[in-house]
Amino acid sequence: xxxxxxxxxxxxxxxxxxxxxxxxxxxxxxxxxxxxxxxxxxxxxxxxxxxxxxxxxxxxxxxxxxxxxxxxxxxxxxxxxxxxxxxxxxxxxxxxxxxxxxxxxxxxxxxxxxxxxxxxxxxxxxxxxxxxxxxxxxxxxxxxxxxxxxxxxxxxxxxxxxxxxxxxxxxxxxxxxxxxxxxxxxxxxxxxxxxxxxxxxxxxxxxxxxxxxxxxxxxxxxxxxxxxxxxxxxxxxxxxxxxxxxxxxxxxxxxxxxxxxxxxxxxxxxxxxxxxxxxxxxxxxxxxxxxxxxxxxxxxxxxxxxxxxxxxxxxxxxxxxxxxxxxxxxxxxxxxxxxxxxxxxxxxxxxxxxxxxxxxxxxxxxxxxxxxxxxxxxxxxxxxxxxxxxxxxxxxxxxxxxxxxxxxxxxxxxxxxxxxxxxxxxxxxxxxxxxxxxxxxxxxxxxxxxxxxxxxxxxxxxxxxxxxxxxxxxxxxxxxxxxxxxxxxxxxxxxxxxxxxxxxxxxxxxxxxxxxxxxxxxxxxxxxxxxxxxxxxxxxxxxxxxxxxxxxxxxxxxxxxxxx
Length: 564
Fold this sequence. Notes:
alpha+beta, Rossmann fold, Jelly Rolls, 8-stranded antiparallel beta sheet, 5-stranded antiparallel beta sheet
């Protein structure tokens, strides 16, 4: 058993999709999420005076980042080479990509970046990203071949840095300590598994086999760039220059292919769901931490997700956590249950990306189609109840839809490019009551229309007084006399604190306007807030929490509160 999982994420290798998947292999609070690097840097600069150190083998800031990451989290991923370690106890892996394909992927990614995302970059980096909008691949190589930034894009550069952080100093400064030699040493000595982007499905299946996880059928890619077939082809002259300048990268990639083929073996594709169930399922299910309620057993997506076909967590660590199905049309969820019992499974659907997804959604349990009772949930959009009689100490739930959608295909405005189906927020089961009748109310069912009792607005409804009292308390916290602190707490409910402390993203600004004013943000707000590391006169960085405060203090929101 490995002490933890470490992924040294090289850019443009589908690392975000891989990271989202491996985070689900442990509880949300035990996975080091994206953004932890920035939080660490802020703490470091607040406690250590002087200018930021230059990254290198003797850089105390990055060394401390690596130490902290490996010590505090079970799943660690990030672009920092300081995450690498020569210690054999973690499971360490890295994924490489064919260098020419990876270079073109950089250009595609830079093309989609708005001006706001590159305005704060150093002049050289900003110039390259602007040039990617107009130059074809060959012209780009000829224009920037002598710039330092062009050479730092190499995978060799990142792997050499990993060797400098993780290997003894005499190994790094010896006579054979060239870039290629150190990068090859890093691949052979610092990583238990070396994968290649060109066989991503095989990579994920091998990782699942090594880690004892359910094998995903596919994980897809998220950060898709802006493709231009006419400009994405490298002409012969440009390719010759790239092969000459990046000769180390091409040699290292060939070595990575050999490492992957050797480690994968001839039978890696035999690791399927049956093999997982025989070898690892019992251990995985025993690691879950369900919540016992008066009526049953509840699992949330903050816990490890034992299954496959899910994307990463949204709002991890909060009560509003959820996980989307995708990118394919089949998702699998394993649930520990008592054997030989009549139970009612439940599955909480927090949302679906398009109405077509909900219309086609169906469920199978242990390979058989089952009927579901769909009920409005009190804390979710819909709760599916599934009566079954168990034969084993677990059930295998399959969630099936006809197709998944990108946000753009579903008519949304998000920049997220992955394919999604339905969002699952919780699941679990209860023992079927001996005197259960089909018209009885299920636990947790929202009382929109009570059985035989009329609508909630009726004076005689048993839940009316509770609903009115609860609604009045909420209104009091939004009304004109409420404090700004109370209003802010209510409108940011469910937003992780780490996001509120961070620089706003485009998605964060859009969600803030939807939560407060129920409309998209003006372009000038996006231009000011997104990706800008602006500082207030009191030397505090602008954060998402400050954005919410500015909206709350604005005239539009004050008018809304007055009308309320």
